[in-house]
Design brief:
Number of domains: 2
Order of helices and strands: HHEHHEEEEHEHH
Strand order of the largest sheet: 1-3-2
CATH topology of the largest domain: Arc Repressor Mutant, subunit A
Bound molecules: zinc ion
Strand content: 5-15%
Number of strands: 6
Structural class: alpha+beta
CATH architecture of the largest domain: Orthogonal Bundle
Number of helices: 7
Shape: globular
Largest sheet: 3 strands, antiparallel
Radius of gyration: 17 Å
């Protein structure tokens, strides 16, 4: 639970009236410790007794991405995940993606440094956004790999963590 971000204020600052639907989508994503994919967001809203139909949810996600409140985080060939866009309380940070179970984790902002200035000096470009994703096998899947059991059921359980 994030107590520092005022979600209705964030919406208003972006020129979006804080409707109950927009607020609950932004809260669901903002309060999650890890990025969520569409399915996980849909499920979380249902569990919070604030169900939103699929078309409306897609539209709200697109709108929040467009206004820079949330970010679409690429996850290889699977469905993208959504996380809070960096703001005053949340610095930009790298993500870790598990190629076995498809879960995504937020890494410490200081864990990987990208020297934007040096890159801009070396190339004739202006960098507007840095997205760093590290792929590998998450701790949960590594434990499973070493255990006696393996296979499909473990992989789907791991994805449930999202
Ligand atoms: Zn926050
Ligand atoms: Zn995993
Ligand atoms: Zn993150």
């Amino acid at each position: 639970m994030c107590e520092r971000c005022n979600y209705s204020e964030l919406l208003e600052k972006s020129g979006l009236p804080p409707t109950p639907h927009r607020l609950s989508v932004l809260k669901t994503i903002g309060n999650s410790p890890a990025p969520l994919d569409y399915k996980a967001i849909y499920r979380a809203l249902e569990e919070a007794r604030h169900p939103i139909n699929r078309v409306t949810l897609y539209r709200i996600l697109d709108l929040l991405v467009e206004k820079g409140l949330i970010e679409r985080i690429g996850s290889g060939s699977r469905a993208p995940c959504y996380g809070s866009a960096p703001n005053a309380h949340h610095p930009r940070h790298p993500h870790f993606y598990c190629s076995v179970c498809g879960s995504m984790e937020c890494l410490d902002p200081g864990s990987l440094h990208v020297d934007v200035r040096a890159i801009q000096e070396a190339y004739p470009v202006r960098i507007q956004k840095v997205e760093v994703r590290l792929d590998g096998i998450c701790g949960h899947c590594l434990t499973k790999e070493g255990g006696a059991h393996g296979g499909e059921s473990d992989a789907s359980r791991c994805r449930e963590r999202n």
